[in-house]
Amino acid sequence: MRKLGWLSLFSVSMAYVEAAVVVYLREIYYPGTLTSIFPLKTMSPLNFGVELGREPATLLMLASVAFLAERGKWRRFYAFLYVFGLWDIFYYLWLRLFIHWPGSLKDFDILFLIPVPWFGPVYAPVLAALVFILAGGYVLVKEEITPRPNLVSLACFLVGSAILFALFVFPSVELILTRGIEGFKGFVPGGFSLPLYLSGLGLLFSGIILPLRG
């Protein structure tokens, strides 16, 4: 339980730092309208480049503490799921506290930037994060558990991840193909396939839970 506590503290603290950066960026690009980033404004090349580096750096930091906390690649993977999920949820909770956003779980957000911007409602990453927290937390608490993925669970995880990835990046790919990079300026996302999302999330959930059986 001590390990779970320290990982939780790190995740919540990291979420605070991440949310603080976003508040500063919104102050720069959306002064007076911190509760909305749409219509989208394009960033300066310097800031965009820094953001592209910050995202993998954040993931590397989360992965590093998971690696140090556990032994064995699969227990480390589930520890990463836990810290990532908790970080993601508290990121939105801190933003809600700082700038009263999101106003609703249906509010759209830019979820990630690599390899193209990911768009989706806030509930999309939050639901996935809850799955990560439950599965990862269970493994961390049960020291005797060694997750054992097989071909079925790996296939579920990969296919579910691919569905969610395609759903999130589709608006960006469509914009780039039809209007080029300039299409992002003034862009307002709309429409999100809930059935497709739930199917992807269900497969992802199966891929994470199945290795914990038996």
Provide a quick synopsis of the model.
The chain is mainly α. It contains six helices and two strands, in the order H-H-H-E-E-H-H-H.
Structural account:
With 214 residues, this protein is mainly alpha-helical. It contains six helices and two strands. The chain has helices spanning 2-29, 45-69, 73-99, 123-141, 151-179, 194-209, and strands spanning 108-112, 118-121. Helix 1 (2-29) crosses helix 3 (73-99). It starts with a helix and ends in a 5-residue tail after the last helix.
Question: Which percent range describes the beta-strand content?
Answer: under 5%
Pattern of helices and strands: HHHEEHHH
Distance between the first and last residues' Cα: 22 Å
What summary fits the major beta sheet?
2 strands, antiparallel
In what order do the strands lie side by side in the largest sheet? 1-2
Shape: globular
Secondary structure blueprint with pairings:
Blueprint: H1 2-29, H2 45-69, H3 73-99, E1 108-112, E2 118-121, H4 123-141, H5 151-179, H6 194-209
Antiparallel strand pairs: 1-2
Give keywords:
214 residues, two-stranded antiparallel sheet, single chain, 67% helix, mainly alpha, 6 helices
